[in-house]
Design goal:
heterodimer, A: 114 residues, mainly beta, seven-stranded mixed sheet, 49% strand, B: mainly beta, six-stranded mixed sheet, four-stranded antiparallel sheet, 0% helix
Chain lengths: 114, 113
């Protein structure tokens, strides 16, 4: 089992370009999350999907959109990238048969916006 | 809403010495508490968690944490650190019937020889 996978691992964009970060899980979890990690700020929730077919804003949703394509996949889209979106992005999942708050993380995508 | 404070941004410890990382949370009811570790360039790995029951919980890699309701704390400890424990550590809090977690800003641990 791969767990939680993210693509790409690294990306460099120019200001104004768009891109989609992909996340897939084979853990059969209901909930999926997108975080950004910036130095000294911990992880901040961008968007989450409590179950297939639902999405909700987190703490820092501006400039982002998400799609819960199916139970396995949850993508994050930057429509017009800005330098302030330079960050490391993590996808996480939760919702196993026990300890449903426990989140499992992907390896991250390091994004630089020039 | 719940929140987490990790008062120490950076801790340096000698190899073989003990380590304690502090975590304070703000939440009215009984929280779900977690410690995660992040090695450089990696994702987050769960070290341990507290939901209920025994307030001293054991985790992986020789770590333990103690939940103290009276102090709203969930401090992480290790009796003897190894060089491989150099990493960033995050405390997180959640609540029942809500899948979201709130993370602290993290504590970076440096291990010197």
């Amino acid at each position: 089992n791969a767990g939680v996978t993210q693509t790409p691992k690294f990306q460099v964009l120019k200001t104004g370009q768009s891109m989609t970060l992909q996340c897939a899980q084979d853990m059969n979890h209901n909930s999926m999350y997108w975080y950004r990690q910036d130095p000294g700020m911990g992880l901040r929730l961008i968007y989450y999907s409590a179950s297939e077919g639902t999405t909700d804003k987190g703490e820092v949703p501006n400039g982002y959109n998400v799609s819960r394509l199916n139970k396995r996949e949850f993508s994050l889209r930057l429509e017009s990238a800005a330098p302030s979106q330079t960050s490391v992005y993590f996808c996480a999942t939760a919702g196993g048969t026990s300890s449903y708050n426990e989140q499992f993380f992907g390896p991250g995508t390091r994004l630089t916006v020039l | 809403a719940q929140s987490v404070t990790q008062p120490d941004i950076h801790i340096t410890v000698s190899e073989g010495a003990s380590l304690e990382l502090r975590c304070n949370y703000s939440y009215g009811a009984t929280p779900y508490l977690f410690w995660y570790v992040q090695s450089p360039g990696q994702g987050l790995q769960l070290l341990l968690k507290y939901f209920s029951g025994d307030t001293l919980v054991q985790g992986i890699k020789g770590f333990e944490a103690e939940f103290k309701r009276s102090q709203s704390s969930f401090n992480l400890r290790k009796p003897s650190v190894h060089w491989s424990d150099a990493a960033e550590y995050f405390c997180a809090v959640g609540k029942s019937n809500d899948y979201k977690l709130s993370f602290g800003a993290g504590t970076t641990v440096t291990v010197r020889a």
